[in-house]
TrEMBL record:
The keyword Hydrolase applies. Gene3D superfamilies: DD-peptidase/beta-lactamase superfamily. One of its GO terms (molecular function) is glutaminase activity. This is Glutaminase. It comes from Ferirhizobium litorale.
Length: 309
């Protein structure tokens, strides 16, 4: 598939003059320090080959992309029982919105908005001290990417805990409704650390490969989840992975995807491969501006959209 490398290089070259577009997230002060002109792309294909372009090897803050890995862990732990604590519908509102929580009795719409992810974190923590839950996630991500060099950026975690008033509000609100079982500070501590996972596009594409390969990782031979579970996680990524921009992403790209305010996006082409892109500038709804365009170009040039070429 050397054609694929040509396609990737072409997209990178065409978009390079636009590096720096969008707005870098500043509400987490540590993220505001990132060079807005960074731009990387990587593909891990189910046949074991990998492709990369630009800043594909440089670790960045994966932020909300970690919600996919935490959801996978929570499903492994509590199975379909998690759906009494969190819904499976798109929210149609911002990633950090609180409005629906009161109308909907403290049950967040889906696991990929902040409130839903905080509930999922609480599920993963069952029987664990916060430090152990963070360790479990780090081990899981290293196992998925087959890469023990992946770390958590403590500076980012600290920066976020110092300014995470909205997340504290969401967590307290859910706790008031009985939808958090651990102390709010403990759940938030784990949540901020998971968001601060630092991974490169190459590491992220490899970590997401199980979602493209019916739940197994062709690089390591590990069976991560069942094919049915991988399919369901992909469905949630497609419908909820880009907050109130999820419909637009499905329309333009047509792949399950999950974005983060660090400017990363993980996308899945089922049966083909997993794609990670990174460009820190965000669009109005908090998704990577150039990253979304790069994925739109890639899907158009490869015919990988799940809705047909
Ligand atoms: N959209 C995101 O990536 C949000 C994650 C970020 N850590 C937050 O909680 O605000």
């Amino acid at each position: 598939m050397s054609d694929l490398q040509t396609i990737l290089d072409g997209i990178h070259e065409e978009l390079s003059p636009r590096r720096g577009e969008g707005k870098v997230a500043t509400y987490i002060p540590e993220l505001a320090k990132v060079d807005p002109r960074k731009f990387g792309m990587a593909i891990a294909a189910v046949d074991g080959s990998t492709y990369r372009a630009g800043d594909a090897e440089e670790p960045f803050s994966i932020q909300s992309i970690s919600k996919v890995f935490m959801l996978t862990l929570a499903l492994g732990k509590a199975g379909e029982g998690i759906w009494t604590r969190v819904g499976r519908e798109p929210s149609g509102s911002a990633f950090n919105s609180i409005v629906q929580l009161e109308h909907e009795a403290g049950i967040p719409r889906n696991p990929f908005i902040n409130a839903g992810a905080i509930a999922v974190t609480d599920i993963v923590m069952a029987g664990h001290a916060p430090r152990e839950a963070i360790g479990e996630l780090l081990r899981f991500v290293r196992y998925l990417a087959d890469d023990d060099t992946i770390t958590i950026d403590d500076k980012v975690a600290k920066s976020e805990s110092q300014t995470g008033y909205r997340n504290a509000a969401l967590a307290n609100f859910m706790r008031a409704y009985g939808n958090l079982t651990h102390p709010v500070e403990h759940v938030l501590g784990v949540y901020f650390h998971q968001c601060a996972l630092a991974m490169s596009c190459v590491q992220l594409a490899k970590a997401g490969l199980f979602l493209a390969a019916r739940g197994g990782n062709p690089l390591t031979g590990h069976n991560v989840v069942s094919a049915r579970r991988a399919k369901r996680i992909n469905a949630l990524m497609l419908t909820c992975g880009h907050y109130d921009g999820s419909g637009d992403f499905a329309y333009r790209v047509g792949l399950p995807g999950k974005s983060g305010v660090g400017g990363g996006i993980l996308a899945v082409a089922p049966g083909i491969g997993s794609i990670a892109v990174w460009s820190p500038g965000l669009n109005k709804v908090g998704n990577s501006q150039l990253g979304s365009i790069a994925l739109e170009m890639l899907a158009a040039r490869t015919g990988w959209s799940v809705f047909g070429a």
